[in-house]
UniProtKB/TrEMBL annotation:
It comes from the Bacteria. InterPro entries: Mito/Outer_Membr_Metalloprot, Peptidase_M48, Protease_BepA, TPR-like_helical_dom_sf. The keyword Metal-binding applies. CDD domains: M48C_bepA_like. It is found in: Periplasm. The active site is at E137, D205 (proton donor). Its EC number is 3.4.-.-. Belongs to the peptidase M48 family. BepA subfamily. Residues 75-259 form the Peptidase M48 domain. Binds 1 zinc ion per subunit. This is Beta-barrel assembly-enhancing protease. GO terms for biological process: proteolysis involved in protein catabolic process.
């Protein structure tokens, strides 16, 4: 539909504080930690962890080059929740984010938040390999490794931990300054942190491979992907970034391979959605460099039916990105004719229509799409088509419902702000922009915008009461976040 990317780069330093003891490799071991005298509860409750997660997510949105592509967000969250549904010890909601970064990496942090780098799609040969990385990160969360790291640091060097948190936040806003601060803070205890990380990495592998198997993926994908990373490290002057934040000694690979070998062999086919997501990520993102190579598309063209569809979709994407609208439509039309309700194809068809100033065609196609009332991706597409087609009133109807149901999606608020501006509703435009600011951690600016909105409506009106109540909520959020801003 539309690409919405932040501009600065996030430093993935949280995983340097993550950290699994090697246990006998039995495939039916439940993924529960033994009681070893540390529950992390004395340092950080689940409620506090979720509160901190909310704070960090807002910082992430405000400073990292997040890929807010509705199709890709829906795909990685669907895949992630499939894995979470087969995990034990789930104490928080989970949310999955995709960052536009050509360095292969992934990390998890407070409150069930998991971040993937877009480069993972380039390196993952199949869906099971991508899922293995996600299962590993999910296990960091369910086993509360970051909270345990906090407890360990609090016991051994409490001031070091506080400084490290502050440096992580600084790194989000300014990676160079943040890295320097973190290096100085951890200089005296670096070896202990690395050792703790290695233990937790093995535990995340052990728990993650069980989650992977129970979710219906190939458990061999985990050691296969780890081996790919090790091979890269052997033949490169600089190891992949993921190995800097996720230590990978040979023993960790051997342990993962041993566990996978004890599990029942399974043949798993990657979903068509995986291939579509890979084509879209490589063709539209990855730091602005098109990495959807002709070799890959040619290989897919000779593969199974899902790969063949992805190859043709990829060629249509490439043509669209080059603004060769006629060629893009020519490549896409056979796919769309065969599957007129496929959201990947409908989304691309909308982009082509709008690129050719044919908003009416996009609107008519989307209005009649099956299941649009239940499909947030298509709802955003239709709202965008209405905005581009000069029908903001129709867009407002969709977007007011959408933002109510999906208040954490900045795409909806951005479109609503454009819509209200087109309708001349200045107060409602400011209120929508305030929500975007708040989602990106800019609470002061959100309050300022809402104050302006409140001043523009009738004194004592219901609308003014709504704006003032929202200002009070943001001020409470400010107070709650104050402790983290001081770290």
């Amino acid at each position: 539909m539309f690409k919405r990317l932040k501009k600065t780069l996030v430093a993935t330093l949280m995983t340097t504080l993550l950290a699994a003891q090697t246990v006998p490799a039995f495939a039916d071991v439940a993924d529960q930690l033994p009681d070893m005298g540390t529950s992390a509860g004395s340092t950080l409750s689940i409620g506090q962890e979720m509160q901190m997660g909310d704070f960090y997510v807002r910082q992430l949105r405000g400073s990292a080059p997040l890929i807010n592509d509705p199709l890709l967000v829906q795909y990685i969250n669907g895949l992630g929740m499939r894995l979470v549904s087969h995990a034990n010890s789930v104490k928080t909601p989970f949310h999955f984010f995709l960052i536009n970064n050509d360095e292969i990496n992934a990390f998890a942090f407070f409150g069930g938040n998991v971040v993937l780098h877009s480069a993972l799609f380039r390196y993952a040969d199949n869906e099971s390999q991508l899922a293995s990385v996600m299962a590993h990160e999910i296990s960091h969360v369910t086993q509360r490794h970051l909270a345990r790291a906090m407890e360990d640091q609090k016991r051994n060097a409490p001031l070091t931990w506080v400084g490290a948190l502050g440096s992580i936040l600084l790194a989000m806003a300014s990676p160079q300054a943040g890295m320097a601060a973190l290096t100085g803070t951890l200089a005296g205890t670096q070896q202990g942190v690395i050792s703790f990380t290695q233990q937790n990495e093995q535990e995340a592998d052990r728990i993650g491979i069980q989650v992977l198997q129970r979710s219906g993926f190939d458990p061999q994908a985990m050691p296969t992907f780890l081996e790919k990373l090790l091979d890269q490290a052997r033949y490169s002057t600089r190891p992949p970034e993921i190995l800097l934040t996720h230590p990978l000694p040979e023993s960790r690979l051997a342990d993962a391979r041993n566990r996978a070998n004890q599990m029942r062999p399974i043949v798993v086919q990657s979903s068509e959605d995986f291939y579509m997501a890979k084509a879209r990520t490589l063709g539209m993102y990855n730091s602005g460099r098109n990495q959807l190579s002709s070799d890959l598309l040619d290989a897919w063209s000779k593969g199974n039916i899902r790969e063949q569809h992805a190859a043709q979709y990829g060629r249509a994407l490439q043509a669209m990105e080059a603004k060769n609208w006629d060629e893009a439509r020519k490549q896409l039309q056979p796919l769309l004719s065969a599957q007129p309700d496929n959201q990947w194809y409908l989304d691309l068809a909308t982009d082509i229509d709008l690129g050719q100033n044919k908003a009416t065609d996009a609107i008519n196609r989307l209005k009649n799409a099956p299941g649009i009332k239940q499909n947030p991706v298509l709802q955003l597409n239709l709202a965008n088509a209405y905005v581009q087609g000069g029908q903001p009133a129709q867009a407002a109807t969709i977007l007011n419902r959408y933002t109510f149901s999906h208040p954490d999606d900045g795409n909806g608020w951005d479109l609503l702000a454009q819509t209200e501006a087109a309708l001349g509703n200045r107060d409602q435009e400011l209120a929508a922009r305030a929500e975007v600011m708040a989602l990106g951690g800019r609470i002061d600016q959100a309050i300022s915008l809402l104050s302006s909105a409140s001043a523009q409506v009738k004194l004592g009106s219901l609308q003014q009461a709504r704006y003032d109540a929202r200002i009070d909520q943001f001020r409470e959020l400010q107070k709650r976040f104050l402790q983290y801003q001081k770290m």
